[in-house]
Amino acid sequence: MDINEWWGLVERAREAAGDRADDRDPPDDPLPGALTDVLAALEPERIAAFAVTAVDVTRSAYRWPLWNAAYLIEGGCGDDGFMDFRDGLALLGRETFTRAVADPDSLAGLPVVIRMSRGESGWIGYESLNTPTAEAYHRLRGETASLDAAVEAALRDRIRPADPAGESWDAEDADAARRYLPRLAALFLD
Predict the structure, then answer these.
(1) If we measure between CA atoms, which residue out of 41, 50, 40, 48 comes closest to residue 7?
(2) Local confidence band at 59 (pLDDT 50, 70, 90 cut-offs)
(3) Angle at which helices 44-59 and 3-17 pack, to 10 degrees?
């Protein structure tokens, strides 16, 4: 699937979710359901292509600086948490995602992050982009085994990065956080 088409589908779901599109805080998050509805309007093969492109998109965010930003925002962030964070970040839309991958400190300007820094409700992470994809596919086909097989086959020859890209520093080092992520550090450490 063309990357522009992929982001266009995410944007359609965001538009359907309205003013709640930027916050994954359960239990009544409308965006996953909106994305399921958008994807269910596609052919099953296009849903599989969306799932494959989602892997490419979230892998592009597999970067130490972004992981350390997630660590600050979430008060800790392991492997699974960072996968969720990247999936949720993609749901924030292309502009926010691209900016955050290039400059993780830009996340300090998001209203949801500001709320989180105050201890108020809010969340960026989303458990898995696979969920709305599988639900949409299941609506059309009544099963998801063929979706899983198609995605696995498409990704079989792709090399997964062993480690995140970019410069790494100790995520628990407050001085390093202030140096590399000054705006986020001001929100969460000061």
Answers:
(1) 50
(2) very high
(3) 100
pLDDT digits (tens, 9 = 90+) for 143-179: 999 999 999 999 999 888 889 999 999 999 999 999 9
Cβ contact 174:185 at 8 Å: yes
With bands split at pLDDT 50, 70 and 90, how would you rate the model's confidence at 142?
Answer: very high
Q: Give pTM, 2 decimals.
A: 0.94
Residues 6+ apart with CB under 8 A from 61: 86, 89, 90, 97, 100, 101
Helix or strand run (H / E) with residue 64: helix 64-74
Give whole-number Cα distances, 97 to 1, 148, 158, in Å. 18, 26, 22
Q: Are the beta carbons of 162 and 151 closer than 8 angstroms? A: no
Q: Percent helix, strand, coil in the chain (nearest 5)?
A: 65, 0, 35
Q: Name the nearest CA neighbour of 46 among 75, 6, 11.
A: 6
Instruction: Reply yes or no: is the peptide bond before residue 32 cis, omega within 30 of 0.
Output: no
Give 30-41 pLDDT, tens digit per residue: 999 999 999 999
Element (H, E) at 129: none
Report the candidate in 89, 94, 33 with the shortest Cα–Cα distance to residue 66. 89
